[in-house]
């Protein structure tokens, strides 16, 4: 007898992890784990990092949840979907009846698809009627978003395609480590580095800094001052682009009144960066034919994150870079849908289309699409950390639903956050695996992951992508959209108001975004399936999209960009006698965010299985520590035991810990939740610590 060969089906899709959203194909044969092949896509140029190569392992992970779990007598036990959803709806209704609508809160994630971000925001405002919704993107790029809106009137991470970087003479990377966080990105920097123009600002000698032509190492929390020093040098050395400043901007005079006091020698005393290097960078940027200033988390995750990003934008404006073909300013978004996730209404102060929830016209438009009266929509709620901090307190939420986030590991002062979660009357999570946050829940709902469902993502360039379903999910696992739809109906909403099909939800999202700053009304699944490169805004079906923004005008009503005067104040928690060192946190190549996914992939976890602390050898010696031994890293909020890695290139006053690990290895046990006053971003990037041997010596 003849046996038919199994037919392998290749599905063109994108990586489950970071904002580069590398193109890949998944090939599956019936019943098997799919294999991954890199796909030529402009952002990754056919490259993948280790995380992308190993991503199919997530699909077959034995750690996957395959049944809803309900806590009974203190233990999470399998339950049917009807039992779990009925329980959730009953408890939410009770809590709302007794304590009011704002007693129920929702927490989302920057990895959720556009459709999920949109339906989650609608679910909170319409089905629950609560103002209490925010998401983990507040921890990620909210400071750059706020600074971008101040300066340009609109925030799109990169307002130009990544491939434009290839022609740059100079790229100034501030607080970004793409060689580890998104390795295929580095191909876009080779043009600048081959021309001697790659400058990296980072207190650590990261793999990205290793490739730089010039590496500046300011003390953590002083990069705002460094930007002021370089801007001072630009002006003092006659490099100000006066005609651009006159034609395309306002407010330079107020900025110069502050910057005039930040001469490079003064800034050297604040930052530790030599005045000569500040002048050198000013000259390199000024002489470049094309140049870019790019910021990331290192600039943003501070209690002064918005001001810090504004300082780097001011520098770019003084040189005439933004809105010029082949030059510009951009923010490197981190999470997979960090861009789209901030546009569709899961943020405490926003409605879909990147509209402000307090704006009457925005409320009217979105309420019309949703078929509810505008006055029924709640106003702005608490920001992410403030929401977590208020859980279970007098006027705080009593119940929380978490989608796509693992706050027990990823939030600052994480022991306190876990305490607040434990103080809730009711915690529900939708999760792939029993993450550290789900382990505290009363109900856990098992949901599909990237290759098991259709959905759109918006990558760091503002390009909308279709992530396609390549494999069937495990039986009895549902999509987040199905969960939201089923819950909304149990809370009394009509089924047609909460569709569960991704394309149907996207069609509604298009209408809700129409006319807003992030206008998706011309993006359709059909156009994406046809391979069109659609960068928002795309205001109608014929519109080709907007790869490059601001070429003619910025988004403020007068078309001009704004200089924003800012001054250096330093970290919220400076070092002192008791805590003499500064700890900074970040990512490693093998792990993504809280590690809930990458710690499940053996090849990744075996490479970096535990937290470590990088310490300068002199600092280690003074603390009695040895390379490879264990250290206690202690801040005012907690302590972490970590293996010592002595790193001679590190500043002696700085230690570094990656933040991907659970339990007592959480770097965020240490971090300071001091918030930026505008973006409400916590100060992840610097806190005061001391080191000791494990016995406390
Ligand atoms: Fe690309 Fe990021 Fe995925 Fe790595 S993790 S393959 S850089 S999208």
Automatic annotation (TrEMBL):
CDD domains recorded: MopB_CT_Fdh-Nap-like (cd00508)
Pfam family, any one: Molybdopterin
This protein's UniProt keywords: 4Fe-4S, Iron, Iron-sulfur, Metal-binding
One annotated Gene Ontology cellular component of this protein: membrane
Protein name (record): Nitrite reductase
GO molecular function, one term: 4 iron, 4 sulfur cluster binding
Gene3D superfamilies xref list: 2.40.40.20, 3.40.50.740, ADC-like domains, Dimethylsulfoxide Reductase, domain 2
Stored InterPro entries: Asp_de-COase-like_dom_sf, MoPterin_dinucl-bd_dom, Mopterin_OxRdtase, Mopterin_OxRdtase_4Fe-4S_dom, Prok_molybdopt-oxidoreductase
Organism annotation: Prauserella muralis
Superkingdom of this protein's organism: Bacteria
Signal among keywords: no
Entry keyword Iron: yes
